[in-house]
Amino acid sequence: MPSPFAALASLPGSLIDRVRDAFGSPRAGTVAVAMLVVVTIGTSVGIIALGAVFDATVDQQITVDNPDRPSESTCETFGDDPDSVIGEQCDEPKRIEVDAGEELRDAAGGYIHYGLLGVPLWWVVFALALHVGALVAGGSGSVADSFVIAGWALGAELLRLGAGIVAIWYTLSNAAPAGSSFEALTTDLVAAITSATGPLLVASAVAIAIQWVVVVGGLEAEHDLGRGAAAGVATFFAAIALVIAAV
User: Rounded to two decimals, what is the model's pTM?
Assistant: First the structure.
């Protein structure tokens, strides 16, 4: 009977074998495209969810410039006419209080395009870089094969995204930001989120480990690389991903 340590040591190889066999399916390309669509939509929804987290956890009023009031130079030039629209707008206060959570939610909503465009861009860049790495290692697959592998590897990003949102929600729920301006509040929030770096890094490491298994199995199946060569290519990219996650 094998020892628990031996069984644990053999687990990565067993997982890679399963992934390699799965890449042999005629639906591998379809799965890659489906994964791309799911992760793109999931990331966009995650950005909206992050805004909702800000709205739910940041319950504070901050003072900001009144967006309904014209600039000071405009008011100096045209504000003396009480019958003009500008004159009425210049009677508005220069600064107003707003709900910080709602402002952050709206600001997060302005970054949805990062999910809609960023995920496909990452897929293209990673697939091309992976293809170059496979060629250097002696692989024989096509560029399309590399895109399939990169598409499968995308799935782990949802784990990282979900863990990140949960960690930020937990951290902000237990934080007490005191800034009365947007700049001061941002500083407090960044400091609070920074305290969650440890859990976020662990989540990133788990996601990258999953991607490592997928890439190794994919390179074996799609590029006909030996396990050592495939592991070398996957480890190179995993190391870069870990460095980026730690920064």
Answer: 0.83
